[in-house]
Write a structure and sequence with these properties.
The complex is a heterodimer of chains A (301) and B (332). Chain A has 301 residues and is mostly helical. Chain A has 14 helices and five strands. Chain A starts with 7 loop residues before the first helix and ends in a 22-residue tail after the last strand. Chain A has two domains: 47-208, no CATH class; 214-279, Alpha-Beta Plaits (2-Layer Sandwich). The N and C termini of chain B lie far apart (92 Å). The relative contact order of chain B is 0.09. Residues 271-280, 293-309 and 315-332 of chain B have low confidence and may be disordered. Classes of the chains: A mainly alpha (301), B alpha+beta (332). Chains A and B meet through strand 1, strand 2, helix 3, helix 4 and helix 7 of A and helix 1, helix 2, helix 3 and strand 1 of B. The complex binds iron/sulfur cluster (SF4) (5 copies). One iron/sulfur cluster binds at residues 140, 163-165, 169-170, 190, 195-201, 214 of chain B. Chain A: Residues 212-245, 251-280 form the 4Fe-4S ferredoxin-type domain. Chain A: Pfam families: Fer4_5, Fer4_7.
């Protein structure tokens, strides 16, 4: 089980907290958001009402899940004003900070699939059914076309994300079986299968964040010692290569791929401090890096 | 085909297999995901049938539209002061995550300000509903005439009394009790033009299992064919008969044996009734058989004896009573 070493270098170099900074922040955020929703039903403190589909905070701030609203639109229904304002706010937010921030910093299923991924590494489970990462975009298209054809908000009939979140807040019922299914699927059937290949919610938010200015970047990529730890912990490892290894081909150090969840695990786990949060515009080749006559390609994904 | 075509530029020849692979992959993906979508679609179709005991909140759009509008946020649930509503768990027969209530557990209290509707961000609960008395969450139906206490001849009336739209949504209809022959029954009767479907009657019904139940409208309500016109309604609307009454042809009427209707012709029974039967002499024809509000019949049909009625039966005191109402087998 050589996998146990992942992050060991970083822990040695930066200490445990230094090597888990973004992970802790992220889990804290996920739990705080869940806690805000639970404060009402559990403690009677009504700061936020509703769930991730739509919430109303302090009786002034509406937040609507744009993906659910889009499915509803495909069935031919337009929400009330408050619902539309909620859509606008959420879309604006994720366009700015990166769509898949939803996946890593908000979505409750992320904790489930991250746990499955962690356990998979600890148990050394190898082998995985192959499914293309583009499958989720087909799923996304299917849910929209399906909503239009059936007149029902299709994905919400089975969506584990909303089932889990709604379940925790309004009573879980048998939704736990669906969550368990996702966990077991990621653990035994397909590595990073749910979030990385199937979930249309993640696909949708990924598309939202294609142009987001906030990006993870590898400004110190020259210092990379090829330990591969970032590839191991990253839920979407394919996004790292162009930024980390692209110096030779003239690619800039910014991770531009929409699939990057801005989780910051790569920053944590790198002993050489190669990664940082930065902006997409800071994509020039660092001085002294081999770029030759090739220009950086900021438009690439 | 491009692979064998040596006239194509080398770049195209090289790209062709990759492109073919891509198309192949895409087709496979479309098929797989499409099958999944098909399954989901069938599931969605089944989800559109709201089960008998699940009712939607006030103002809910028709079930089909509702499932395209409700984003399952639970704001209606949160703002209901009576905890009437809940969001469907996956194991419930209602579409997952959508709000519903069960009248027998907690009915809708018909809040005047309708907070559940106000809270809904999507209009799945129609914001046009401002008068709760116009809500149509379902329709009450007195389903079991055999256990309803009022149908048994008692004065329960509970459903009638708890109804927030009393005397409009439910009335008590007075009918003679033919079992005792000397009492009245007060039958709770629901009128769909006023019943909001709040479910208070079902909740309050005193029987072990409610004799009156509120069902989703689609289940509770029959529907006449599109071409049906109710003569009396049309008459009311237009202020007079829609047909030319004078040119009506009176065809022979088939009357219960032994009765006549003055001015009507019934060849089967001969125009005249046996002497002594109602209708044989000029006068009003009974509108209902004896025992159901019609006048007592003085004589039994010939051949069926005129034995004395056992003591305690209707007619035992007054005299002889036919064992059947005329026309229901009481004749020869
Ligand atoms: S590249 Fe880094 S921030 Fe992006 S998903 Fe991977 S680990 Fe997370
Ligand atoms: S009208 Fe009042 S009691 Fe009825 S569902 Fe709405 S909030 Fe609840
Ligand atoms: S408030 Fe409206 S959208 Fe939200 S659960 Fe209730 S009916 Fe559905
Ligand atoms: S459901 Fe029952 S109580 Fe409610 S309005 Fe209809 S008849 Fe009245
Ligand atoms: S409450 Fe029940 S038993 Fe009593 S009259 Fe109404 S339906 Fe009949």
């Amino acid at each position: 089980m050589s996998d146990k070493r992942i992050g060991a270098d970083a822990r040695a170099a930066k200490g445990w907290f230094g090597a888990h900074k973004w992970l802790l922040l992220r889990r804290g955020t996920q739990l705080a958001i869940l806690g805000l929703f639970l404060l009402g039903p559990l403690a009677g403190v009504w700061i936020v009402k509703g769930n991730l589909a739509y919430s109303y905070t302090f009786g002034v701030l509406p937040l609507t899940d744009p993906y659910v609203a889009l499915q509803s639109l495909f069935t031919g229904h337009l929400p009330e004003t408050l619902g539309l304002v909620g859509v606008a706010i959420v879309v604006a937010f994720y366009v700015l900070v990166g769509g898949r921030v939803y996946c890593s910093w908000v979505c409750p299923v992320n904790i489930v699939t991250d746990s499955a991924g962690w356990l998979r590494r600890r148990l050394g489970i190898k082998g995985s059914v192959h499914l293309a990462r583009t499958t989720r975009y087909w799923m996304l298209a299917m849910t929209l076309v399906g909503s239009a054809l059936s007149g029902v908000i299709l994905w919400e009939l089975v969506n584990p994300v909303s089932m889990l979140h709604r379940g925790l807040i309004f009573g879980i019922g048998f939704a736990w079986t669906i969550v368990l299914a996702v966990f077991l699927f990621d653990l035994f059937v397909m590595s990073r299968g749910w979030c990385g290949r199937l979930c249309p919610v993640g696909a949708f938010y990924g598309l939202l964040g294609r142009v987001s200015p906030l990006r993870v970047s590898a400004p110190a990529r020259a210092a990379c010692n090829d330990c591969m730890d970032c590839f191991e912990v990253c839920p979407e490892p394919q996004v790292i290569r162009p930024a980390l290894k692209g110096a030779a081909t003239g690619a800039g150090p910014v991770i531009l791929a929409a699939a990057c969840t801005n989780c910051g695990r790569c920053i944590d786990v790198c002993a050489k401090d190669v990664f940082r949060f930065g902006s997409r515009f800071n994509n020039a080749l660092p001085v002294g890096e081999a770029g030759g006559d090739r220009a950086a390609t900021p438009g690439q994904f | 085909m491009a692979r064998h075509d040596e006239t194509l530029p080398p770049a195209v020849r090289k790209a062709a297999p990759a492109r073919r692979q891509f198309i192949f992959d895409a087709a496979r993906m479309a098929c797989g995901v499409g099958m999944l979508g098909l399954g989901l679609g069938l599931y969605a179709k089944q989800a559109k049938a709201l089960p008998a005991l699940a009712l939607r909140p006030p103002g809910a759009l028709a079930e089909g539209d509702f499932l395209g509008a409700c984003i399952r946020c639970g704001l209606c649930v949160r703002d209901c002061p009576y905890d009437t509503l809940s969001l469907a768990k996956p194991e419930a027969p209602v579409a997952t995550g959508t709000p519903y209530f069960t009248a027998r557990s907690i009915p809708c209290e018909m809040c005047e300000d309708i907070p559940c509707v106000k809270a809904c961000p999507t209009g799945a609960l129609d914001h046009g509903l401002t008068d709760i008395n116009r809500a149509r969450m379902g329709l009450a139906a007195l389903i079991d005439h055999e256990t309803c206490l009022n149908f048994l001849g008692l004065r329960c009336d509970v459903c009638y009394r708890v109804c927030p739209v009393i005397d409009k949504a439910i009335t008590l209809e007075l009918v003679p009790n033919t079992r005792t022959g000397r009492h009245a029954m007060f039958l709770p009767t629901v009128h769909s033009e006023h019943c909001t479907g709040c479910g208070k009657c079902e909740k309050a019904c005193v029987t072990e299992e409610a004799a009156i139940k509120v069902l989703p409208i689609a289940l509770a309500k029959g529907a006449l064919g599109q071409h049906y016109r109710l003569g009396w309604e049309e008459q009311k609307k237009s202020g007079g008969s829609l047909i030319d009454e004078k040119s009506m042809v009176d065809l022979p009427d088939r009357l219960p044996e032994g009765t006549t209707l003055p001015g009507h012709y019934d060849p089967a029974s001969g125009m005249t009734a046996p002497p002594g039967m109602p209708g044989s002499a000029p006068g009003p024809v009974p509108s209902a058989p004896p025992g159901l509000g019609g006048p007592a019949v003085p004589s039994a049909p010939p051949g069926l004896g005129s034995e004395a009625v056992p003591p305690g039966m209707p007619g035992a005191v007054a005299g002889k009573v036919p064992s059947h109402p005329p026309g229901l087998g009481g004749g020869r």
